[in-house]
Amino acid sequence: ASVNQFRSVLATVPDAMIVIDDRAHILSFSAAAERLFGFSEAEVVGTNINRLMPNPDRERHDDYIARYLTTGERRVIGRGRTVIGQRRDGSTFPMELSVGEAITDGDRVFTGFIRDLTEKQKAEDRIEQLR
Ligand code: HEM
After folding, report:
1. Are 16 and 33 in contact (CB under 8 A)?
2. Is 83 in the pocket of ligand 1 (CB under 6 A)?
3. From ligand 1's centre to the CA of 74, what distance in Å?
């Protein structure tokens, strides 16, 4: 599959979806990802995925990918993980991250699906206050 084929699928996906290469550079950024993070696709393509997260993950994320490429040990791929994302305005939010791996045009890419957990978190906080 080509990057353009990914783009045409992404246009129809309601969840935020981001495709990166093996050096963590963003290849495509869905419309839902644009709404969630407050960046346009044109602004983020070619930049490192780590700009979308706060520290400590921001400064470690290149190492996470390097570790995976070296060892093949999956810590997020195929499992999912609740992590913290960071929007353009610097605010942070909880998100469920699912990462997959694919080969496109002979190159390895990673696909990330993101579900915003902000509303779920707020509902849980409200329930906690009722106790
Ligand atoms: C690994 C955080 C987004 C691709 C990881 C790990 C964390 C993390 C905590 C595993 C650390 C470990 O236990 O070793 C985040 C955060 C994100 C984010 C906070 C918020 C934006 C993404 C996206 C993609 C991605 C969107 C792909 C498009 C990867 C890959 C690995 C990884 C390929 C290594 C493979 C693995 O450990 O299974 N990330 N990530 N990440 N992440 Fe991210």
Report:
1. yes
2. yes
3. 10
pLDDT for res 8: 72
Q: Which backbone phi and psi does 14 adopt, to 5 degrees?
A: -70, -30
pLDDT digits (tens, 9 = 90+) for 52-100: 999 999 999 999 999 999 999 999 999 999 999 999 999 999 999 999 9
Q: Please give the ipTM for the structure prediction.
A: 0.97
Mutate to test the pocket of ligand 1, among 13, 61, 65, 82 (most ligand atoms within 8 A of CB): 61
Q: Would you kindly state where each structural domain of the chain is located, as residue ranges?
A: 3-130
pTM, rounded to two decimals = 0.91
Instruction: Work out whether the CA dihedral 86, 11, 22, 116 comes out positive or negative.
Output: positive
C-alpha closest to that of 75 among 108, 110, 43: 110
Topology, domain 3-130: Beta-Lactamase (3.30.450)
